Structure prediction request, 897 residues.
Amino acid sequence: MRHFLYAAAAVAAFATPVAAETIAITGGRVVVGDGSAPIEGGTVVIRDGKIVAAGARVTIPAGARQIDATGKWVTPGVFAGFTRLGLAEVDAVNGTNDKSGGKSGFSAAIDVAPAIDPFRSPFAVNRAAGVTRAVVAPEAADNIFAGQGAIADLGADGNPVTKARAFQFAEFGEDGAASAGGSRAGTHLHFRAMLREAQDYAAGRGTFDDDLLKAEDAKALLSVLRGETRLLIHVEGANDMLRLMELKREFPAIKVVFVGVSEGWRVARELAQAGIPVIASALNDLPSTFEMLGATQSNIGRMKDAGVQVAIGMINDRDSHQLRYTTQYAGNIVSLQYVPGATGLTWDEAFAAISSVPAEIMGVGDLLGSLKAGRAADVVVWDGDPLELSSAATTVIIDGVEQPLTNRQNRLRDRYARPTEGDLPKAYDR
Amino acid sequence: MAISNTLRSAYLVLPLALMACSNAEGPKTASATPASKPAEKAPTPFPSTYKAYPGVATAIRNVTVYDGEGGKIDNGVVFMTGGKISSVGGPDTAIPAGVNVVDGTGKFVTPGIIDIHSHLGDYPSPSVEAHSDGNEATSPTTPEVWAEHSVWPQDPGFSRALANGGVTALQVLPGSANLMGGRSVVLKNVYARTVQGMKFPDAPYGLKMACGENPKRVYGSKGRMPSTRMGNIAVNRQTWIKAQEYKKKRDSGKEFTRDLGMETLAGVLDGDISIQNHCYRADEMALVLDMAKEFGYKVSTFHHAVESYKIADLLRNNKVCSAVWADWWGFKMEAYDAIPENAAILHNAGACVIIHSDDENQIQRLNQEAAKAQADGRRMGFNISDAEVIKWLTYNPAKALGIDANTGSLRAGKMADVVLWNGNPLSVYARPDKVWIDGALMFDASNPKIRPVSDFELGQPGEGDVK
Prediction:
């Protein structure tokens, strides 16, 4: 059986996607992903790659293929809030690592979309764990502007980019200062100067093309300045966030999202007032740097209570390979509800923080991230509570297409389930 | 490249460590002093000054007990007094009058969690360059260095490992830049003003060794040996030959010159110091086992052993433990074949499994890592009970460290290193409720006063916060 599945996976990986079917998933505990409570015995109907309906009293269309999810959970696929998916096969093997365009001479213009390789094994491994979409960002090198990131799907169709140039990514705080000559003052100056030079470029004023900015970079930043492209900024410390909020007032049209945000709880009221959404690292609780002295796992819960829109991401935390940790991280945030003095999220809120909320923060909530009608049919059936450590995805559907769940890891598992050799070397066992 | 602030696995810390050492191409010989009398074992220097804090006789009842050796008791009782486990049993277990009684209804008790692979203290938080004390990356063999001389006892990480992870003991190791990285130290997870005050009394020393990519990359990039895996083995064997000669000289009764590095290696050959061997690939582990046979020492544990599943039978037959992550993979070439079923395949083959962290974050969730590994095993048809899985975090690491007579399971007479969890520790929703070390209550989720705050965090934002 597994031989057959592998062959199917290989074909699917290189062929045109299978035409999306009409599918009805019945009998499961349905989680819409918008923060509402699960619906027992619900039905999810998928047609033409989109969600038709999800709920208790849903008519099953004639001819639909039915998937029985009795005793199981049915949810939107996990939307990984901040990743480097598809940008590395083996992090420490340079030829496979496309995270940073550091020596290209460009900065804001860099576009990760063509570097996202869906045939790299992190796609298949994380797909099998129920991750269906991801925010994919470049890494910064010697400029605070790292370049343009994408929204990707984890489908096995060789066509990973949902939305190219979906956002610009920049580094502030310690990492930003390191890219900007060694000080936070330099970061602010670079930020302001590069955006002003982009405006000069647009206005036809001549001196923009200095060592800060090339014409292509200027074009990319103009889109940010006009508010057409979101600006995701990695920032951890409370002071850095306050100063960045002040700096942002000089550029009122920019749509800013903060990423990381370990000390967000210290400025939660200000974040809420400024309407700045965050893609937060869930479990940072150590003073890894001096800008993270206040880090606590209660950060997300406290920000949420203050009215901040919060999704879960995993910047610089195994973010090219282990998107499958996203559900575990969300589960940990739920567990804080049972710890005296700690602040967590309810289960429903936590699941939203890894499905609809990241989609909304990225401006694609009407297209992705939940089981509401009209969204892309990214649906996962789980054999138990998807945030629980013992659970696994049993069916993964992306854009209405059921996905193969095989990967290198389960091929190795099968080969070595009994490690001793048989009649032939292990190399013949497949 | 932005090196993650949250990752300090041995691989990832290397660039920083090397930066710190790049101007330090000094002499590589071990410090040598004229010896005193030969064949006379001097008292161990830097002795432990750890003292158990006072506790009150406490009984936890109506609780689910995982005893750390594979046993489970429903509705059980754990009674500790005088810093020791006194009795463990079912609901009828006698509880003396007048003792502190904790109702464990809906809760679970395990032995204190033990992390066999940590860099708390020698790569502490904040992870600034001035704190990068885990790799003496100036010579491929540095058996003369001792991790305890790098441990900063104010690392905030100790408190997180206690409060979120229920960790009561841990082995702090040198990093993996070197083939022979130096001595490890086993600590009680109790803050003290000095590292001696944290040292686990009478715990044997370990010697950190490393296979594979790290040593050959570090020294090859300096144009020195080893630059290949064959170079790794050659340098190791040459060094063991010297150690055998040193031991012979030491045992001959004649005058000899002390050599700190050789003392450690001779300690390994004597069987007093255990080998804690960073080794990812199956083929390299097999070579190390033969090298150990050649020189007459034993490997206690392969650490980061992501390919152990390929040679589970060999590891079982050689009685070597594998200390593994649940699912780390793909960060370097030698971690490419890691699979989440590693632990389960090993266990099913009868080999010893330990879940380790090598990480200041995952040390807070070793129970969760074990639960994931258990679930991955179940899906391939290997049903490993919860009580057996708890053994991966308690008794097995205690045994591999040589401290199992004192801790690692809930047996009468052992140190009362005990965690009360607010739910099943193999669930993502469970956290430590109370942690006792030698019978003293060192963490209580309900009492902010019973929550350690290191000097570094005093007077800082978030001091004493839930973390």
Remarks:
- The two ends of chain A are 12 Å apart (CA to CA).
- Residues 174 and 184 of chain A are 7 Å apart (CA to CA).
- Residues 1-17 of chain A have pLDDT under 50 and may be disordered.
- Residues 2-75+392-416 of chain A form a domain with the Urease, subunit C; domain 1 fold (CATH 2.30.40.10).
